[in-house]
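Reminder to self: tokens first, then the designed residues, so the page reads top to bottom the way the pipeline ran.
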């Protein structure tokens, strides 16, 4: 018999009642160090007072209005994002999947309106994750996402991760652009090297096509820059953003240059709830914190410390941990000899919340507000977990 909630999630047997800062508390009062942050969403931790106050104050005034009217808080947030990035314009969404859809449509419309109607295809990379819409799973091309949902939308050419020769070979007269994650999340916490991102930018410039970045998981301060691509010194034409941008409130954005967005005119796209006053108030509050002096520098410092401690952990447990991956506070350890879900379940039982990712990686996306004591606590828990798991293997 089917459950009242569609059974599409393999849920852990724990339910949370409240959260505060870096911690969640279950219905029995047990405390958990949150190193997952709702899939990288809770960038400022749980129940952050700035976000709570912003939501309460806006909720007292206006929850929703149609996008056929002006929304001042949305105009303010868009201008702030433009001022802090490469972009000239922003379309607000409710989720990362919607942001990807907007980016795909924008890339196609750009070429259509430039007189290149046959250019509609995007080159993407293996192990990518671009959301759960039909276009999103077609762009990723992973069988675990696509099986049973065929026929898929046409228009995506998937090449091996980071293979520039394969990218060049895939480009043809129908190619509209290249769409990649600067740091893959679901695919196993795999950063594309700066040189690769720079090469992708040059390829797009040479071919007259658009560079689209999916920074839904790696953006909004996660790597120590507002956007991960900034480390490589390159800029995309379009970027899809979500997760941390709302600090836990459903919010996403598709940001673009004026040229890339030139085809998106009145009536070409829309979203009923996208950019509603509640989301805009929270989004502005998130930016207040992330753009505050010293915040991103703190992320860099804690990211360096986390990776150093994970490297030391790998040395102590070289029989299990084969690699440390990631950038900033987007980290993963690869443990090929034990099912990743088993490791994660063990850690949850010990009061730490990570998650699993592709390629046998234990994924860590802690709130950006963590300090050294939280890293110490996480390493102590990981060390105990790996020690006990190693004993079981002998």
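Designed residues (394 positions):
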């Amino acid at each position: 018999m089917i459950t009242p909630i569609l059974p599409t999630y393999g849920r852990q047997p724990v339910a949370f009642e409240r959260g505060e800062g870096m911690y969640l508390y279950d219905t029995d009062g047990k405390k958990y160090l949150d190193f997952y942050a709702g899939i990288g969403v809770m960038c400022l931790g749980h129940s952050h007072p700035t976000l709570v106050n912003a939501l309460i104050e806006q909720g007292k005034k206006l929850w929703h209005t149609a996008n056929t009217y002006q929304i001042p808080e949305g105009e303010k947030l868009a201008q702030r994002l433009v001022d802090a990035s490469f972009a000239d314009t922003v379309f607000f969404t409710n989720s990362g999947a919607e942001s990807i859809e907007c980016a795909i449509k924008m890339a196609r419309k750009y070429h259509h309106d430039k007189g290149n109607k046959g250019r509609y295809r995007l080159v993407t990379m293996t192990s990518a994750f671009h959301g759960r819409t039909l276009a999103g799973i077609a762009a990723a091309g992973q069988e675990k996402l696509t099986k049973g949902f065929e026929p898929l939308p046409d228009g995506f050419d998937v090449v091996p991760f980071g293979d520039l020769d394969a990218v060049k070979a895939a480009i043809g007269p129908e190619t509209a652009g290249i769409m990649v994650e600067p740091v893959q999340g679901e695919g196993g916490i795999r950063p594309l090297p700066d040189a690769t991102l720079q090469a992708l930018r040059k390829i797009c410039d040479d071919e007259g096509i658009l560079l689209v970045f999916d920074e839904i998981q790696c953006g909004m301060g996660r790597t120590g820059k507002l956007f991960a691509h900034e480390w490589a010194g390159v800029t995309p034409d379009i970027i899809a953003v979500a997760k941390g941008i709302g600090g836990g409130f459903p919010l996403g954005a598709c940001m673009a240059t004026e040229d890339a967005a030139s085809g998106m005119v009145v009536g070409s796209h829309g979203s009923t709830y996208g950019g509603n006053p509640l989301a805009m108030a929270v989004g502005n509050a998130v930016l207040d914190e992330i753009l505050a002096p010293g915040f991103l520098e703190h992320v860099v410092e804690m990211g360096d410390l986390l990776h150093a401690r994970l490297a030391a952990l790998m040395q102590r447990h070289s029989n299990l941990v084969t690699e440390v991956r990631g950038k900033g506070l987007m980290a993963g350890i690869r443990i090929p000899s034990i099912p990743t879900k088993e490791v994660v379940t063990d850690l949850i039982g010990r009061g730490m919340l990570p998650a699993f990712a592709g390629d046998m990686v234990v994924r860590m996306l802690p709130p950006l507000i963590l300090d050294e004591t939280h890293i110490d606590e996480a390493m102590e828990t990981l060390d105990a977990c790996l020690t006990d798991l190693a004993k079981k293997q002998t």
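The chain has a mean pLDDT of 97.
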